[in-house]
Amino acid sequence: MHALVVFFDEEADARVRELWRRIGATFPYPPHLTYAIAGTIGPKVRAELREDLSRLWLPDLWLHTLGSFPNTLHLGAVVDTELLALHSAVHDVLAGRVKHPSAYYLPGNWVPHCTLLAEADEAAVAAAFAELHPVEPIRARAREVSIVDTQTATIEVLRRT
Q1: What is the 3-state secondary structure (H, E, C) of the chain?
Q2: Sheet of 138-140: strands edge to edge?
Q3: How far is CA 52 from CA 41, 45, 99, in A?
Q4: Cα separation of 23 and 130, whole Å?
Q5: Domains in the chain: how many in total?
Q6: Whole-angstrom Cα distance, residue 148 to residue 41?
Q7: Whole domain around residue 28: which residue ranges?
Q8: Whole-prediction pTM value?
Q9: Can you tell me the distance from the alpha carbon of 10 to that of 30, in angstroms, rounded to the nearest whole number?
């Protein structure tokens, strides 16, 4: 799987890692927000993404809402017009050009978030929620936008800020 993600500035990265430490979570990648996931995002599409991203403004994120999906705890991003515009622009490039796009990340379905705990049972999610609540909002600036290959753990930077 390939994921299009934004990695955060040093301060936001450190604050999310502190939350991870408090609940005993570990991840193979730095804290991030995912814009899209697909089975394959090929070289031609990556080049177009790189070009489009060079012209787009990357909005700051406010990670503000502690929430959960099944077996997952996350810090939800405040959704505003700038964030939705960037997400839509990314998906305009990807539309019909990637293999097996994840429906969870398509416009209209996307819940922008930074994962704090994954693949945990209900009791672990509840305990982590109790440990972190209330959470202070984190202002996250984009450090880079990258493609992450979740099988090889390789990261290709498309844009650095």
Answers
A1: CEEEEEEECHHHHHHHHHHHHHHCCCCCCCCEEEEEEEEECCHHHHHHHHHHHHHCCCCCEEEEEEEEECCEEEEEECCCHHHHHHHHHHHHHHCCCCEEECHHHCCCCCCCEEEEECCCCHHHHHHHHHHHCCCCCEEECEEEEEEEECCCCCEEEEEEC
A2: 113-117, 72-77, 61-69, 138-140
A3: 15, 10, 20
A4: 10
A5: 1
A6: 10
A7: 2-160
A8: 0.94
A9: 10
Model pLDDT for residues 108-118, shown as the tens digit of each residue: 999 999 999 99
pLDDT in tens, 38-58: 999 999 999 999 999 999 889
Q: In what order do the strands lie in the sheet with 142-149?
A: 99-101, 32-40, 2-8, 142-149, 155-160
The Cα–Cα gap between 78 and 31 comes to: 16
Q: The domain that contains 140 carries what CATH number? A: 3.90.1140.10
Residue type, 144: E
Specify whether the CB–CB gap between 104 and 35 falls below 8 A.
no
Q: For residue 46, give both structure tokens.
A: 């990556």
Residue carrying structure tokens 């990357």: 58
Q: How far apart are CA 16 and CA 115, in angstroms?
A: 9
